[in-house]
Design a protein that fits this description.
alpha+beta; 136 residues; 6 strands; 4-stranded mixed β-sheet; two-stranded antiparallel ribbon; elongated
Length: 136
């Protein structure tokens, strides 16, 4: 989902004449490229919802089990699961299993790399400037 949204936005920028330029500092650490670091600070797992929000129901359609504080987990269980007759209908039963396997993982991650990203307008002018004291 994220990839599709990112690709679509990059295509919009490209069609409006905006250029994305990636620059790497090849000599950041004693003449060598900077090793890439990633630190995860927080995360949450959401079970039972689709990443495409339009496919989800309202909060009233779910039993919600919230374990964010202790486990970093929220579970959305569709209320139609409590109807025994739904398990006798093969089409609905398949939906129950499909809904049970939906999962969203969100994470707050900080990346440190030797890359700078520049956006240039259709005239080649930078759309933003890095601060003069910016370090890679």
């Amino acid at each position: 989902m994220f990839y599709i949204k990112l690709r679509n936005r990059l295509n919009q920028l490209k069609s409006s004449g905006v250029e994305l330029v990636v620059e790497e500092d090849l000599f950041a650490v004693r003449g060598k490229p900077m090793p890439i670091e990633a630190n995860m600070y927080d995360h949450i797992v959401i079970k039972g919802l689709s990443p495409a929000r339009r496919e989800n129901g309202s909060e009233e359609d779910y039993y919600i089990s919230n374990e964010i504080m202790n486990m970093g987990h929220i579970s959305y269980i569709p209320k139609y699961i409590s109807e025994p007759s739904n398990f006798t209908n093969p089409a609905i039963e398949k939906n129950i299993h499909d809904d049970a396997h939906k999962l969203i993982f969100r994470a707050y991650v900080n990346f440190k790399t030797g890359y700078k990203i520049h956006l240039k307008d259709k005239y080649g002018k930078d759309m933003f400037e890095y601060p003069t004291d910016y370090s890679w």
